[in-house]
Structure formats: C-alpha cells, structure tokens
Amino acid sequence: MLNRLLFTFLLILTFQSSIIAQEAKHDTIAGTKGKLDVAPETRKEKQQEKKLYSISQFTRESVLFVKQPLRWKGKDWLTVGGLATGTALLTLADQPLRDATQGDQNYYYSVPVVAGRVYGEWYSIVAVAGSFGAYGMIARDTSAKKIAIELFQAGLYAEVVTGILKTVVGRARPYMNEGPSSFHPFSVLNEDYNSFPSGHSTSAFALSTVLSRHAHSTALKIIAYTPAALTLFSRIYQDKHWVSDELLGAAIGYFVGNWVVDLHESKRHKINVEVTSIYPPAVSIDLDSFFPNRNTIIASVSK
C-alpha cells in the first residue's frame, strides 16, 4: 500500500513538472513578443546565442560558481552574515525542539513523512530533471530542456557545498544523543557525524526553487515548495537532523537554485538547446558539425 502511494506521489510530481514546462514555454513566447532588450548585445553575447549548451559552457559556469564569493558585495555579505547569525541562534533551540518532536513516532513510516524523505534524495532531482529532459526532446520544448539543465546544475552545486560543510563541521546527528554541541570535524566516512547541514533539505529546496522560478502562477509556486516543506519536517521528525541543520540546508538549496536560474537569464550564459541534442541535457551536440555532408551521403544511398 505504501509503495502504491509513493508511486502516486512521484506520478503527481511528474505531472506537475509537465505543467510547469508548458507554462514556462508559454511565458517565454509571450515575453519574447512583449519585451525588447534595451541594452545592445555585445559580441560575446551574440556568439553565445549561436553556441549550443555544452560541457565547456557547463565548466565555465561551474568555475564561475566556485569564484562567486570573490564577487560578493556588501549586500551579499550581509545576507550571508544574517543567515549565519540566524542559524547560530537557532542552535540554542535545537534541543528543546527535538524534545518536542520526539516521543511515540506513530507516523514514522506514514506517506507524508516517507514522501518528504524521498523528495530530498539525490535520485529525485535526477528523476525530475530526466522527466523534463525527456519531455523536452519528445515535444521539442526548449523551455523543458532548459529546466532540466538548471535542475541538474542546481542539485549538483548545492550538494557539493553541503557535502563540504558536512565533512568539515562533523556535527553529531540527534539520534546519537550527544547533544547539539557535539562536533567531530572531518568525519569523512561516518554518517553519524554528518548532520550539519541537511543534504535532503538542500536537494529538496534546490529542486523546488528551480521549479518555482519557472512556474508563473501563485498556486504552482506554492505547490512546488510543498514537497520541500515535507522533506524538512520529515528529517526532523525521523530524528536525522537538528532544526538548525534544516534551516541552513534549505537556505543553500534556495540560494543556489536562484543563482543558477538568474545566471541563465543573462545573455552571456544563455542556454541554447534549439538543435538536435543527445541526453543528458547538459551536453548538446550539433550533428551537422560531425557529418557536414550527411545530406549528400543520404542522397547517394537513396539512389
């Protein structure tokens, strides 16, 4: 019974993804008709529009992501400082909040709790990205392909950040009963001391943020974040994370997801997937560059 309900949950999520893809496509067409770029395009921007999204572009964007802290300004550092302060203050409430949520865990394997955990697994973002990529290729929908690429990037970048923090900080998980102030830095292979921040919430909020950014109705934006909220709750309820772990994990997923979408809205990093491509969506190949005389060959064979 539980497996059927989880299958239904994933089916609804895939259906929701197709709706968002359709809305994103409609909005792109409408925006193209109703808006004009005020700033003239530079030479690099014109060249970028003609290039296919490729491994080289992905590599450049990855390097840009790594260097991003060097480009932060006062407002950015203020945001980081506020998040760090909020997380530190929340650690004071970690133990009381854990005591309030633990007891007779009658709903430990309930559908909302298990579905929330599943949504935060790495394979969920891969599955949703794959659904968008497959739909984009079948329906020739460039907006869906773009979303697939952004989901892949946001999930990868966010998980790398969280993975590094988990290893460096080495915080004990709640079920270890060592308290919220127990740290064992650089616990590489010990999951019991990889609590901070939450990887599930990182992945869930990266996924939901990208989906929400491409949804153009308030209802769909709310729906996009609903499973991420379940993920956050489930990890606390199942005693896998402290509340402060969840806050920082959710924040990382949210900010990285927004950064990836904002990046591709600029002309210099525009995603071009108009021509024939081979999945995964992060790699697009122009077949004409490999077979420049393929029409001649086909004509010769047909004779």
Detailed description of the structure:
It is a single chain. With 303 residues, the protein is mainly α. It contains 13 helices and no strands. It is globular, with a radius of gyration of 22 Å.
Q: What's the topology here?
A:
Layout: H1 2-34, H2 43-50, H3 55-71, H4 74-90, H5 94-101, H6 111-119, H7 122-139, H8 142-169, H9 199-213, H10 218-237, H11 243-265, H12 287-290, H13 294-302
Structural class: mainly alpha
- What's the main sheet like? none
- Specify the number of helices: 13
> C-alpha Rg, in Å?
22 Å
The poorly predicted ranges are 1-39, 275-292, 294-303
**Quick one: how many beta strands?**
0
Bin the strand percentage: under 5%
Short key terms for the protein model shown above:
single chain, 303 residues, mainly alpha, 0% strand, disordered N terminus, disordered C terminus
Condensed summary:
With 303 residues, the chain is mainly α.
